Amino acid sequence: xxxSQELKMIxxxxxxxxxxxxxxxxxxxxxxxxxxxxIKYGIDPTGSDVHLxxxxxxxxxxxxxxxxxxxxxxxxxxxxxxxxxxxxxxxxPPLTPEQIKSNSEKYMEQLYTVLDPNRTEVRYQSExxxxxGLN
Length: 135
Hints:
- With 135 residues, the protein is an alpha/beta fold.
- The protein folds into 2 domains: 1-35, no CATH class; 36-132, HUPs (Rossmann fold), CATH 3.40.50.620.
- The chain contains 5 helices and 3 strands; from the N terminus they run H-H-E-H-E-H-H-E.
- It has a 3-stranded parallel beta sheet, with helices on one face.
- It is elongated and about 45 Å long.
């Protein structure tokens, strides 16, 4: 698939890509070097099920995977542990490590119904947040 075909697929159901020129440059570099792009999506495991709002970016990630790129799911285990209130009027209740692990596993089971497990990498905030003194 050439870059114009990839761009057409990527731009389907997308309002705007900022900056478009930057994406084109990255796609061209990926083609030239054979090194896939790493497409990242972060999700906080605050419940046991992903919701419809997760589907749009996950389906887009799958399109990138179908073009040979790598999807990276970043599990917000640290955020879930502290009960981050982002976008809410009240704090979310902090979750136990067991709840976070269970929710994360359930999320990935559900996400793998869309994503290619062989082209998906799973990372956790807790891999680097403690190194920043955030623990």
